[in-house]
Every structure is written in structure tokens, then in C-alpha cells.
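Record pair follows.
FIRST:
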Amino acid sequence: MFTLVSRLAVWWPVKVQQPDPDQPGTFTEVGFEARFLIVGKSEMRGYAEERDALARELVDTIEAMSTADDKTAVAQTIRAHEKALEDHDAGMFHRLITDWRGVVDADGQPIPFSAAALDMAIDQDRIRRALKLAYDAAISEDGARLGNSGPLPAPGP
């Protein structure tokens, strides 16, 4: 029986590409699972509109750089816009990710999910990118089919 809900909580594999500490110049794939909230279009629309406005401000400021008299001030404004965009995205990660499993510390001990631990993870470009790709796959029919087709890679360092 199909259950209609406004927010669906699902576990989804997250595959992180990172430099291999044992093989210089190569990458390895490690993974964990994240519990995502799959939300409706109306909830995502507000987020997308806010993000688009922040991105437009950033682009406008970058374009203004070429004609600005005070390039240092414009560069500071660009950094402020980039930070606002990063903060907005971090807020969305906090809204959509509610738990994880398979995340361990350097000693192999599980790291419990928390807001601080998620902040530490999304501060890393490779992890933030992997989480976004996993969420995008979870909300698409093609991603759902592919996401269920194989086992997770073993959790890594």
C-alpha cells in the first residue's frame, strides 16, 4: 500500500571520492549512508528562490569588479556573497540530513550524528559534493534505480 506523506525519510548511500593515503596521485571511493528527508516541490521552491537570489548578487558583484575603483572592497563583498551562499547551502543540508551511519573517526570509532559533526563533514568539499549527489540521486527515479543496484563501499578513514 502506498502511503502519501509530505516528507519521506530514507536511508541513501553516499559515495565520497577522496585522495588515497596509500597510493599517491590516486583517489579511492569510501561510503556511508545518510538519512535524507525527501521534501515536496513547494518546500524546495523557497530554498531554490533564495539560493538563486544569493547567486545573482554574487554574479552581479563579480561583474562589477572589472569597472570598480576599489577592487579590494569589491573582493571583500564577493567573499561575503560566497559565504552567504555557503551558509544557505549548509542550512539546507541541516534541514535535509537527519542521521548517518557508517561514519567513523581515525580510530574506527563511530561518530554519532550531530549538527557539529555534520558541519565538520560539509566543511569538506568532497563530502559536501557527495551528499548533494546522493540527495539528487535519491529524488530522481533514475537515481533511485541506480542507488539500489549495489552494495555500499566499506566505510573509510
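SECOND:
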Amino acid sequence: MQDFIKALTSEGKNTALPEEFNYFGKLIGSWQIDYIESSDPRPIKGEWHFSWVLEGMAIQDVIILPDYEYGTSLRIFNPDTHAWDVAYGYTGKIIRLEARKQGEMIILTYTNDESRKWVFVKIDQNTFHWQNVTVKDNGEWHINAEIHAKRMG
């Protein structure tokens, strides 16, 4: 198993990945999270871990929400589109998204439904805020769920 982990993970970002597209680099590390759905204001406590992988051209994460969902995302920088191709998987489902920066936000748009988005609203050194949104016909964002995260350690 250690051979697999060593082959997968990277010490840092590959120099071939332009710094201007290093959207997710601040997320590297481990985070304590509160996941809150709009239909239930009680937070689900969990963890979210991020690491550079695939020779530093990608970032993989593992999200752990006990008794709710365990999932993983693989974010791979695409030099042809200057965006990140993203796949999120959990038991029974894989979601494909494309990530681009818009101002300070990182917006991940579902590839098969542009009205569905995951948004890193703000990423600081020790906190971040994430939202799962649906864009209504009038352009208004409906927040389906959100995460408030604090860096561990």
C-alpha cells in the first residue's frame, strides 16, 4: 500500500502548472468541516483532506461525513482549456465538473447541467467556505448545502 501512496502523491505543485491557475493549492492539508444542508440547519461534523497527486498536476481529496457520505474528488489541470477537469465520486455516483476562477471564487460547474455549481466562495490560510448551489432561471443562486472549514493542527 505504501508503494501506491508514494506513486500517487506528490510533494507539491508541478512547475509546469502556471501559478495563475493554482486555484486549489491553498486547500492542501486537512480540515475540520461543518456540512449544512438548507433543509436541515444541524451541521454534520466531518473532515476534508487534500493532497497534490499525479506529479503535482492534480489535487485529490477525501471528504468524510460519518453516517452520511464518503467521497473523493480528482482535480486535474487541463492546459488546453486553462480550467480544471474534476470528477467527484461516492458510492453509486460520479459527477463531472469544470472549475474556473471568477473573481475570488472558484466555480465548479456540472458538465451536464450548467445550473448546478459547487463554489469555493472564499479560501483563506486557515478557513474556507464552500457552497452547493442551483442557479435559478432569474440568475439567483439557491444554496442547497454549504461547508464551513477550519484547518486542522
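COMMENT: The CA atoms of residues 3 and 9 lie 10 Å apart.
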